[in-house]
Write a structure and sequence with these properties.
alpha/beta; Rossmann fold; 2 domains; seven-stranded parallel β-sheet; 13 helices
């Protein structure tokens, strides 16, 4: 595992490894860990622990050898893990669903409020010595389109209902009856894009979803629309979104994730109508503790052959 994980995420749960007789190898490489960083320490390891930005490729899995049993991810995403290679080598890939879903839903609503009410801009202006009471727009009573109705999307729907919002949902894997039970009206993606004041993304990054918010999708949106992404950067064609924000084609965006992470510079940073954050939506003191403990428990449970299947993403 990386040093940030060992020193920040799981120190209070490290005893579970030592109590079980495990030896813990901590990489000195700077975060996020690359494949080469993992390879330096992978040989002979039973488990690899990785966060959302760490890369666990086929070469890492092969370098670890036959001893590797599990790759434990914190959070629910696993796009930086070669899941197919893991399955081929009989290595379980685990995640920690449910540990930070409500946390991400909180942050998503926070971005909606910040975008619509201009909260960061007003803070920056007033701290700069200028009293400029710019007017934003209500969130109450508006229409939100939620793309992806898993745990996080459902959490956003519950919060949106408290704001008396009209809630539209797009998810090919959730039927209309199930959405109706959530207070969500099921629509096709194009319909959602054209009718929503807020379009919030809660889908994994894969071949079906990469670039789903592209120039064509943006052309369907209202000029008053805000795009919110607390899921995965590749869901958005960033060049198309940048063009739309610069031209005023849509009202704004709240972005917690990007195609390339981490980064210290981006054209988005220069835009007044883009609110950005460093992939932090799922991380609070409470959620990190839940994710850390679940990830540690997953490693020990896979080794013992007792890991609940809901935490294993590749059926190993």
């Amino acid at each position: 595992m990386g040093r940030p994980m060992a020193e920040t995420w799981i120190p209070e749960y490290m005893h579970k490894f030592t109590d079980a007789g495990w030896e813990v190898v901590v990489s000195d490489a700077a975060a996020p860990l690359s494949a080469e960083d993992f390879i330096a320490d992978a040989a002979g390891c039973t488990a690899i622990m990785a966060n959302g930005s760490d890369t666990v490729s086929r070469t890492v899995i092969e370098a670890a050898g036959d001893t590797l049993k599990v790759i434990a991810r914190t959070g629910v995403g696993f796009d930086k893990v070669d899941v197919d290679a893991a399955a081929e080598h009989g290595v379980a890939v685990t995640t920690t669903p449910g540990s930070n879903g409500e946390t991400v839903a909180d942050f998503t609503l926070g971005l909606m409020l910040a975008c619509s009410r201009l909260i960061p801009q007003l803070d920056d202006t007033l701290k700069g010595g200028k009293w400029d009471p710019r007017k934003g727009n209500d969130v109450f009573g508006k229409t939100v389109g939620i793309a992806g109705l898993g745990r996080i999307g459902q959490g956003v729907a519950r919060r949106a209902a408290a704001f008396s919002m009209q809630i539209l949902g797009y998810d090919p894997y959730v039927d209309a009856t199930a959405m109706a039970a959530m207070g969500v009206r099921k629509v096709e993606l194009d319909d959602l894009l054209g009718r929503s004041d807020f379009i919030t993304l809660h889908m994994p990054a894969n071949d079906e979803t990469t670039g789903m918010i592209d120039a064509r999708a943006i052309e369907l949106m209202r000029p008053s629309a805000f795009v919110i992404n607390t899921a995965r950067g590749p869901l958005i064609d960033e060049l198309a979104l940048l063009a739309a924000l610069k031209s005023g084609r849509i009202a704004g965006a709240g972005l917690d994730v990007f195609i390339d992470e981490p980064m210290e510079a981006s054209p988005f940073f220069e835009l007044d109508n883009a609110i950005v954050s460093p992939h932090i939506a799922g991380n609070t003191a409470e959620s990190m503790a839940r994710m850390a403990e679940r990830a540690v428990d997953n490693v020990i449970a896979v080794d013992a052959g007792t890991c609940p299947p809901e935490y294993v993403v590749n059926g190993v």
